[in-house]
Structure formats: structure tokens, C-alpha cells
Amino acid sequence: MDGELWSTQRKLASHEFSTRSLREFVVKTLEEEVSERLIPLLENAAQNDTVLDLQDLLKRFAFDTICKVALGHDPCCLDTSRPVPSLFRAFDTAAEISAKRSTSTVALLWKMKRFFRFGSEKKLRDAIEIVHESVSEIITKKRKLILEDENKGGGDMLSRFLMAGHDDEVVRDMVISFVMAGRDTTSAAMTWLFWLLSQNSKAEKLLLNEVNRSCSNSNNVALNYDSLQEMSFLKACLCESMRLYPPVSWDSKHAANDDVLPDGTVVKKGDRVTYFPYGMGRLEELWGENCGEFKPERWLLEDDETGRVLKAVSPFKFPVFQAGPRVCLGKEMAFTQMKYVVASVLKRFEIRPVCLDQPVFVPLLTAHMAGGLRVSVRNRSK
Question: Which residues of this UniProt protein bind heme (predicted)?
């Protein structure tokens, strides 16, 4: 989306993302997905000494969660007894091929493939068709439910937009955007964090202490939104992980008009300007001499009354969620999801990689770990 259409959709979505009811719906969705699917899978692996690909598991979890929140639809990706849904595969294919367009040395090649509809561009077209058809079918069913009884719609984004009277095609494109934005980003961030914690026992111990303390203070067995907000060290760990391994390692914008950057660089209308969060996270001038080390403390300040509090860091220094007018609407939702999952898993299990080699960072549309993250799972001793 761009221009006036983007601006209109941004305003519509911004209103919904700010509602307390959506926040409560997200936490309820997380509680169900974690307790009924993720934890039992990890428990089974621990009991049977099974090696799991944690990256794949978290990717499936994230897709289930974002589909429930955006579409009110459960693709059941974490149900390993079922085949992988076509919608899941189609999103994967579309994202991978779209990313490879940008890395193509000669853009004319993929443009010719698109024009003649062959090779990777035919696969992309087919994948997009599956996504559009699947989401349109979900919209049709959802609209029928709402017409019968508005209460049947649910708290998901799709129901909210349909009940507000928006056109099916506009709603389709908006919810697809939300699924694209949330499907692999949070899972990638959590995958790298679990690996980093396995290499940093001190940080893992501090984090576990914070999780246990917050859970005992909440008077609830299940995590809730308020207890998650108390976990400042957990958020610092997530920020530090994303500084080193950002889910989106590079991004581009095109200039709407002639401009001049703060350093004096002249930008002409239509020029493509790319920024590189992966490289920025490793700049000494931004993060100091220890910029290559995992140090969550760099995100925290000591406070006499409340203990450790998070520093305010400019999004232009840490652009993982973008900055300015296009800052990510789902930022807080993403942190809520990641905190909920990491806290829930760490509280119950020890996660240890079976391979001690440094994982390879693959910077596609959403960056991931080459070959996944194969781990053993052990129940944490009481």
C-alpha cells in the first residue's frame, strides 16, 4: 500500500490496534495457543527425548496466532497430525520469491518471467492466487456469520473491519498485510533469542528469576498483560537479540519528492533509499566497542524506586520496527506475543541446541536461521 490508500488504511488500522479489547483478545489467543498446543508439544519432546526444530515450531505457532488475530481463522499449523495448510505454504512461497526479486542482479530477468508467466514468477502468481482465494473465502464466511449475529464475528481484526462497513477487497488486502507482517518476524526474533540465551547462562538465569518473580506477584497461574509489562529484563533481551539479528535485516523506501538527508546526501524523486538494521546493530559509533556482544544491560537504567527500567532508545538508531510515519502498528502486540512465549517456555523447560556451531543468518524478506534450530528439551527442575 502507498499514497492515499495507505494513509486511509493506516488510520483505520491504527484505531483498532489502540483498543483494549484487541489487546485482551491477543492475550486470550496466546494463552490458548501456548497452553493447548505449544507446551504439550515441548512436554512430549522432553518426555521422549525428541529433537525439535525450534525455528519451525515457532514459525508454525506465529502463523496460527496471527491468523487467529487477523482473520479469526485457525490454520492448525501446530497440529502435526494434519498436513501443512496450503495457505501457510503459499505465504512462504510468495515471501521467498518476492525477496529474491530484490537480490536479483538484473531486474529485467524476473520482470521477463513475470511478463511471460514462467519459472519463479509463475510460482509467485500461483501462490498469491491461493492467498487471495483462501482469505476471500474466510471473509465470505465471516460476513455471513456477522449478518446472522454480530456477536458471532469475534474479536479478530477481520470482524472489526467488516462490522465497520469496509469493502471486501480493501479488508482482504489489509488483513493479508497483517499476516505478512506478523507471521515470521516474531518467530525469527524468538528463535535467535533462545539460541543467544543458550550461549549466555548468566542472562538466562537473570531472565528466569524475573519470570518467576513476575508470575508469583501476579497471583495468576497464567501470564497476563500486566505481569508481562513488569518484565523489563525480558524486553531488554528481546531488543538486544533483534539488534544483533533483526527479523527484517534491510528495508527500502522510494522518495516521493526531491530531498536532502541530514548528512547532506541529495535524494532525487523516485530514488530508492535502503537502510540496513543488521549493519546498524553492529556499528561501534552507535553501540560502543562491545557492539558484537549480547548484553541486555545496555537497554536498562538503574532506578532507586523501581529497580531496572528500560532506556528510551530512538527508533532511528534501532529501526527494527521502522520509525516516523510508518512505525510498526503491531509493535506492542509483537512484544506481548514474544514475552508471553519466551516466559512460558523458559519457566517450564531448558532449551539446548544440539549443534554447537554458530548458526548462519539468512537475510530474506524475513531473516531466518539456515537449517533451523535443532534443540533438545528438558523439564526444568523445580
Answer: 328
Burial of 34 (0-12, 13-18, 19+ CB in 10 A): buried
Domain assignment present for residue 313? The answer is no
Q: Phi, psi at residue 172, to the nearest 5°?
A: -55, -50
Phi, psi angle pair for 350, to nearest 5°: -100, 125
| Whole-number pLDDT of residue 192 | 97
**pTM confidence score:** 0.91
CA–CA distance, 264 with 267 (Å, rounded to integer) = 9
283 located within any domain:
no
Which of 315-320's residues contact partners 24+ apart within 8 Å by CB, and which partners?
Answer: 317/280, 317/286, 318/239, 318/243, 318/277, 318/280, 318/281, 319/251, 319/275, 319/277, 319/280, 320/239, 320/242, 320/243, 320/246, 320/247, 320/248, 320/277
Number of domains the chain contains: 1
273 DSSP β-pair partners = 253
* CATH number assigned to the domain comprising residue 117: 1.10.630.10
**153: amino acid identity, one letter:** G
Residue 382 predicted with pLDDT over 80? no
Q: Answer yes or no: is 328 a known binding residue.
A: yes
Residue 83's domain spans which residues?
3-245+326-379
Q: Give the pLDDT of residue 222.
A: 66
Determine, yes or no, domain membership for 260.
no
Q: Look at residue 176 and tell me if it is in a domain.
A: yes
**Radius of gyration (C-alpha) of the chain in whole angstroms:** 21
